[in-house]
Amino acid sequence: MHILLIHQAFAALDEPGGTRHHELARFLAGEGHRVTVITSPVSYLTGAAGNAVSREPSPGNEDKNVTILRAYTYRALHKSFIHRVIAFFSFMISSFFLGLKVKKVDLIWGTSPPIFQGWTAWMLARLKRVPFLFEVRDLWPEFAIAVGVLKNPTLIRLSLWLEKFLYRHADRVIVNSPGFIEHVKSRGTDAVELIPNGADPAMFAGSDSGESFRKQHHLEGSYVVLYAGAHGMSNDLGVVLEAAKSLESKPGIKIVFLGDGKEKPNLQAQAEMMQLENVLFLPPVPKSEMPAALAGVDACIAILKPLEAYKTTYPNKVFDYMAAARPVILVVDGVIRGVVESAGCGIYVPPGDSSSLAKAIISLAEDREKCRKMGLAGRSYLEQNFSRTAIAGKLLELMKEMTK
User: Fold this and answer.
1) Is there a single domain that holds both residue 300 and residue 339?
2) Helix (H, G, I), strand (E, B) or coil at 305
3) Which of 119, 131, 322, 360 sits between 20 and 30 A of 291, alpha carbons compared?
4) Distance (Å, rounded) from C-alpha 268 to C-alpha 274?
5) Do 120 and 215 belong to one domain?
6) Cα 326 off chain centre by
7) CA–CA gap between residue 25 and residue 233 (Å, rounded)
8) If DSSP states are collapsed to H, E and C, what string results for 112-140?
9) Is residue 19 within 8 Å of 26, Cβ to Cβ?
């Protein structure tokens, strides 16, 4: 089977960003299938020009049968919302023409956000007369409207129309969170499957003790709390800075922000204005380096703004934290809270509440054994319920069913 994936935000394991699709593609390739990915040369996480080189399969390694093609994308992704939309449309068009050149495809896999590339995947599937699998990774445009990013009435109408169109015209729809199922069904499709976010526990099972990470960043002897991922409007990281201010009387606690995004310069300026000496901002690292980073910290934060829409999400970083056996300080309500509480792997904090966040950090810092037990419980729960291999196997069975 030859699968064509259209994904502007695709990140390989040697690049910063979410690597769900590279991990799934490698599994599919390992089972003897071909995967061609059309993606952008501009990093979706940082907005910077990234790897412009397309990658052909390399016989003898785990990327055998995975081809990565780069389609032209307008580069000012993070300059403003209008520039971001231009970047979306530029990729939508260029990926379509690049996709026409990919031959002997058996299935086309589109993913959202950005939702506009879903049109590309649908059109290519119809022209090539193959099944169209549409993946919903978050409820765009609902999230963009809720957070105040998408305000233009014309763009809202267009996005809502396109969302319904894709749900109704996809041969199958997959979602990465059970919280999305009702939304997707209410907009015109019953063919919905849950292929949840997860993690590969083997990736985080190395012998790295984390000492190299601590030494490199002068964190020896500290209780280190990590936030890893995007620094955007949705992530509400100002609340973490407020919690850090409350923790100034606890000099042994350090908070590390690892990643990038449009809001990072503002957050750094805010931290400087607040004269915070217990926070550290680090640049993003490739997924291949995340196990060492997570090994070097004591607890991890997952946080989103206190919006009703975000109760539907399964943030991918939570599963990485669990795979690395690190307790989760969860500042997100909803379906992911159910996972963390079922696993017994963390502490829930009401979104937007910096005081409760500070108290949760102190409670873990003062009980290292509690931290250790929570981390091990999370890893065990992930191995049983959210292993990337099992999830990828379910996806493969669905694809086989679609191409019969």
Assistant:
1) yes
2) coil
3) 360
4) 10
5) no
6) 18
7) 30
8) ECCCHHHHHHHHHHHHHCCCEEEEECCCC
9) no
Give the type of residue at 255. Answer: I
Closest by CA to 174, choosing from 29, 332, 314, is 314
How far apart CA 366 and CA 303 sit, in angstroms, is 22
Domain around 320: 201-385
List of residues 6+ apart from 399 with CB closer than 8 A: 1, 3, 28, 107, 133
CATH of the domain at 349: 3.40.50.2000
The answer to whether 266 and 241 have CB atoms below 8 angstroms apart is no
